[in-house]
Amino acid sequence: MKIKKLNRAKLNDMINNVNQEPAINVIKFYAETCPMCINLRDYYVDISRKFSKINFCVFDMSRGQGIEDEIGFYGTPTICMVKTGENHEITVMDDPENPSDHTWYKSAEIIKFIRDNKD
C-alpha cells in the first residue's frame, strides 16, 4: 500500500470531514528532525501492507503549525486514525506505557490500535 503525504489543506479537509468519502485513514505525524520518526518509517510501511482497506498517510509537522492543539496531541511521532464520511471520528493513539528507545511506538502497539479502532 502506498503511503500518501498530506499537505495542510488535505489534512484540514480530512479532519473537518469536508467533501470526504467514507474511509479509514491512519496518519503518522512526524518531524524530519525527530530520530524516532525516521526510525519508525520502515515499520509504518510494513504495517500499512497488513491493512489493504485502510489509507495510510503521513504529515510533516513543519507544515502544520497548531495542528497538535486542533487534534489533541503533543509531540512526534504521533499516530492518529481519522474516519471520514457519515461516521466521522478522530482518535489519537495513546503514548506507550513502555516506549521504544528506537521508534517510540512498537509495531504491535500500532497494529493493536488500528484493529481496536477500525470498526
Written account of the structure:
The chain is α/β, with parallel strands linked by helices. The chain has a single domain, classed as Glutaredoxin (3-Layer(aba) Sandwich). Helices cover 32% and strands 23% of the residues. It has helices at 8-15, 35-48, 67-71, 107-117; strands at 4-5, 23-30, 55-60, 78-84, 89-92. It has a 5-stranded mixed beta sheet, with helices on both faces. Strand 4 and strand 5 (89-92) form a beta hairpin. The chain is globular, with a radius of gyration of 13 Å. 27% of the residues are buried. The model has no long low-confidence stretch (mean pLDDT 95).
Q: Secondary-structure blueprint of this entry?
A:
Elements: E1 4-5, H1 8-15, E2 23-30, H2 35-48, E3 55-60, H3 67-71, E4 78-84, E5 89-92, H4 107-117
Parallel strand pairs: 1-3, 2-3
Antiparallel strand pairs: 2-4, 4-5
Main sheet? 5 strands, mixed
Shape descriptor reads globular
Task: Give, in order, the helices and strands.
Answer: EHEHEHEEH
In CATH, the topology is named Glutaredoxin
In short:
Helix content is about 30%, strand content about 25%.
Descriptive terms for the model:
five-stranded mixed β-sheet, alpha/beta
